[in-house]
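#onboarding

Welcome to the new folks! Below is a worked example of what a typical request in this channel looks like: someone posts a single protein sequence, and someone else replies with the predicted structure as tokens. Don't worry about understanding the tokens yet, we'll cover that in week two.

Example request:
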Amino acid sequence: MAQHSGPQQRIFSPIRTALHRFAFILLIVSCFALMLLGKADTVLIERIRGAAVDLVSPIMSLAARPAASIDDVTSRIESFANLYEENLRLREENRELLAWQQIARNLNYENKRLRELTHFANPPAQHEVSARVIADMGGAFAQSMMISAGTRDGVQKGQAVLSDEGLIGRIADAGYQASRVLLITDINSRIPVMIENSRDRAFLSGDNTDRPILTFLTADASIAPGDRVLTSGHGGAFPPGIPVGIVSSVSENAVRVAPLFRRHQVEYLRVVNYGLAGILKDPDALHSMPHLNQENQTVNGIDLATGVGVAPLPAEDGTTEDQPGPASPPSGSAGSRP
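Example response:
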């Protein structure tokens, strides 16, 4: 065995020693040669790179398979370990939801019975129009948006505009194809609201900031940060109960409210017609509303022609203060006498 390996060792030993001595120099020369070749013939270098990638990629793929398999097995073990806890949590949530479902059914039945006993008049059905925000015209002195819906879609001035979270504003100007939405943060916006917990009434007044303030609060109002603010329904502008925002800060100077929408993230809005005319001043808009009585132009004593949301008080003679008594029939009518 030693005699057979002796000649081979004598032949390859000088070659191995030379390679060890001049390996660094050979690497430097090879690098310079590749750099010169890359400058001289870029197409050839690109082909060599592509061939090298094709040659190395199967080897790298085989080397990465064990690591990927180990990661897959680890993730499966972790998911199986969390499956039991998640199953328990879902069972508990399902039990609570079933309990709330039974309570909701009982309350729904009780609510129907009470409405029947009191002859409660249901509000008119609302009509919704979905539109896309096509322009944000907000600035230092204005807080408004432009939407792609107008009078051709049933949008009228004064209608409520809602996002997914709650009230965002109202229609200030309605064109044929587009409309302008006045946000609740605008300085010209005044909305009758109430605090959900204490039922205190106030006005949400915009001041061109991201936090409108509550005005006309009573001295004994009970408000705390975190309370929800809803529309009160006063004035006939909006129905009660629409979410508006959450009280963010309470101080001696002002009570500020954080709206439920993020202005720069709003893409689609809903224009809702609740059949109310508290802030509508245009008679043509009143005639075009499908939910109103166009013959009498009044709903529960509200004068729709003037847009006033409070009915006049009765006078002593049985007529209203702002309305004349029964007019005599005109001449030539069926009830006149010669």
